[in-house]
Design brief:
The complex is a heterodimer of chains A (about 300) and B (about 260).
Chain A (H helix, E strand, L loop, with lengths): L6 E3 L2 E3 L3 E3 L21 E2 L16 E4 L2 E4 L8 H12 L6 E5 L4 H12 L6 E5 L16 H12 L6 E5 L6 H10 L4 E4 L3 E4 L1 E2 L4 E2 L5 E5 L4 H14 L4 E4 L5 H10 L3 E4 L1 H5 L3 H15 L16
Parallel strand pairs in A: 3-16, 4-7, 7-8, 8-9, 9-10, 10-15, 15-16
Antiparallel strand pairs in A: 1-2, 5-6, 6-14, 11-14, 12-13
Helix pairs in contact in A: 2-3, 3-4, 4-5, 6-8
Chain B lengths: L3 E13 L2 E7 L1 H6 L5 E4 L11 E4 L2 E3 L4 E7 L3 H7 L6 E8 L11 E7 L4 H12 L3 E8 L8 H7 L2 E6 L7 H13 L3 E7 L2 H13 L4 E4 L15 E6 L2 E6 L6 E3 L7
Parallel strand pairs in B: 8-9, 8-11, 9-10, 11-12
Antiparallel strand pairs in B: 1-2, 1-7, 2-6, 3-4, 3-7, 5-6, 12-15, 13-14
Helix pairs in contact in B: 3-4, 5-6
The chains are: A alpha/beta (about 300), B alpha/beta (about 260).
Chain lengths: ~300, ~260
């Protein structure tokens, strides 16, 4: 019998636990290259209430087993998304998770209010890694109070499940995770990129025009796995693990650490065909290990 | 459309000054690709370096099922690539991006390139000459050995002029004179420029003054190459004001008047 890859996330039924991370995969766009219906869920690029031009180039720098990006959440705003992207995205069978970003608490709330009226959205992911312009530019997710304020403001406008995507750039991610859950987050996505930088010694300049960027890729997998493990011990809500996942074995590591599903980010940038490959490998891997369901792995890490 | 291909390396020969010519068998790619498009190649199956490297097509040989890539060793990816022996297979995505919009009935076109940026002009020149369009190429470089494409373009039948910093012939005033003469040739339908912002500004001014459509092929650090990650941004003018477009998907070839040349 074929192993069962399906998982449940806050009432969403996923045919498998694999989805792209926000921003790493063209949605819409990549349907031109592959069948998106094989994925567990679709996660769209973060949208903000108003259009954002994004940061000047260079926006990318390579690092050992990773990359830094500073795109700056370039997007055309929530209204454009509703009119242009959503009609294309709602026709795919996997549940659609829409990522919302903002620089003011009220922006998140207003974006959610507009999206809530639209069909074809299964859940939201709240990107609290953007700078909070009402509090000096620190990311919302760096403060339990600011995270709580954003989650609570979005929660007021939706009956759909809410996943808060946390930044690892904090002293204690468990404290922030608990704050998000207390404010009504139905699940958590862990982790966003790690703040980093790279320098061109010859030119004596930073490699990114923005100087600082978000580190992603295999280099951050141990950090992501640690965050998932620590938070899974402390909260009861489902966790979507993300950070350096590029193989079926990586997926199983995150599930064992406590994730119920995973997102693939930088690996999509290197190989856009990697998610279908991971799904096929995952099935093979479970069969070889005599597992009937992928759910057997969730939180099953033996740490004693 | 599946853009997943395998490049089977047939040859990977040094050309001097850290440059290499890679010839690879990839029949699907060779048939589908157009001049000015690019291919996104994994230089290693490992994680260092992690990202693919974008290369323009130097020559397309659909009859032989082969593509040619002319590249320079500039970092760890191209350094690894330079050591790849014939027989190796490499993962490649392609053909990607929008190529040169060569007018099918153009009587004459002008190509302007500098250094390695001249590489995609060879595929364009070949396509133009094959359809009966006359080609004038002005190729610039720091030294004569750094010139790319002059010999193959001349061999194909293009009128080629080379200028170099070493010979003191590449300054804007002298190039502008050559460019003006080329653009003045009757039947000049289009101009194309690659590899230098300074040359692009010259072509923009000179072509616009004569009402000749001009196009530039841009280079930028890339992530996915498919338009998904938005890292390869370039600044463009639109009726609504300046904004960013994606070099990989909206380009790499853009109408010159659209691009903000910084």
């Amino acid at each position: 019998m074929k192993p069962d890859l399906s998982v449940e996330l806050c009432g969403l039924r996923l045919q498998n636990p694999i989805m792209p991370s926000s921003g790493s995969f063209g949605l819409p766009g990549y349907e031109e290259y592959m069948d998106l219906n094989v994925l567990g869920a679709l996660v769209a690029k973060s949208i903000t209430l108003h259009p954002r031009p994004g940061n000047p180039p260079p926006r990318i720098a390579e690092t050992p087993a990773g990359m830094l990006n500073a795109v700056g959440i370039q997007n055309r705003g929530v209204k454009w998304f509703i009119e242009n992207d959503l009609p294309k995205l709602r026709h795919f069978s996997p549940p659609l998770i829409v990522s919302i970003a903002g620089t003011k608490v009220e922006d998140f709330a207003q974006a959610a209010e507009l999206l809530e009226k639209e069909e074809g959205i299964a859940a939201y992911e709240i990107n609290v890694s953007c700078p909070n312009m009402e509090a000096g530019g620190r990311a919302f997710g760096m403060s339990a109070a600011a995270t709580q304020a954003v989650v609570a403001s979005v929660k007021k406008h939706t009956r759909r499940p809410l996943f808060t995507k946390l930044t690892p750039n904090v002293t204690d991610i468990v404290e922030i995770a608990q704050a998000a859950v207390e404010a009504g987050s139905d699940g958590l996505t862990l982790i966003n990129t790690l703040l980093g930088m790279a320098v061109d010694v010859r030119r004596r300049r930073p490699l990114l025009a923005n100087i600082l960027g978000g580190l992603s890729g295999p280099a951050i997998k141990p950090v992501a796995l640690r965050c998932v493990y620590q938070v899974a011990q402390a909260v009861k809500v489902p966790i979507i693990g993300v950070g350096g996942i590029a193989s079926a074995a990586d997926v199983l590591e995150f599930l064992l650490a406590g994730a119920s599903a995973v997102q693939v980010g930088t690996a999509n940038i290197v190989d856009p065909y990697i998610m279908p490959k991971i799904i096929a490998d995952l099935e093979k891997c479970l069969a070889e290990n005599g597992a009937a369901s992928v759910r057997e792995y969730i939180g099953a890490l033996r740490a004693d | 459309m599946n853009v997943n291909h395998t490049l089977k390396v047939l040859a990977n020969e040094p050309q001097g000054a850290g440059r290499y010519l890679l010839v690879a068998e990839a029949p699907g790619l060779a048939h589908a690709a157009r001049p000015g498009q690019f291919v996104h190649v994994r230089c290693t199956a490992g994680t260092v370096p992690l990202l693919r490297r974008p290369f323009s097509f130097y020559r397309l040989r659909p009859a032989a099922g082969a593509v040619e890539i002319y590249y320079q060793v500039v970092g760890s990816g191209t350094e690894l690539l330079s050591r790849v022996p014939p027989g190796t297979t490499l993962s490649a995505l392609g053909p990607l991006g929008r190529g040169f919009p060569l007018a099918p009935r153009a009587r004459h076109i002008v190509l302007v390139g500098r250094g390695l940026g001249s590489a995609p002009l060879v595929a364009l020149g070949e396509a133009a000459l094959a359809q009966g369009t006359a080609v004038t190429a002005i190729l610039s470089a720091r030294t004569p050995s750094a010139l790319v494409g002059s010999r193959p373009l001349a061999a194909l039948g293009a009128a080629v002029t080379t200028v170099t910093d070493a010979a003191g012939t590449s300054d804007p005033a002298q190039v502008d004179e050559l460019l003006s003469a080329a653009l003045e040739r009757p039947g000049t339908a289009q101009a194309f420029v690659c590899g230098s912002r300074r040359l692009a500004r010259l072509v923009e001014r000179s072509a616009a003054a004569r009402g000749i459509p001009a196009f530039v092929s841009l280079e930028e650090r890339m992530g996915c190459g498919l338009g998904g990650c938005l890292v390869c941004a370039c600044r463009v003018r639109t009726p609504a004001g300046e904004t960013y477009k994606r070099v990989c998907k909206d380009g790499p070839v853009f109408p010159l008047e659209e691009v903000v040349l910084e």
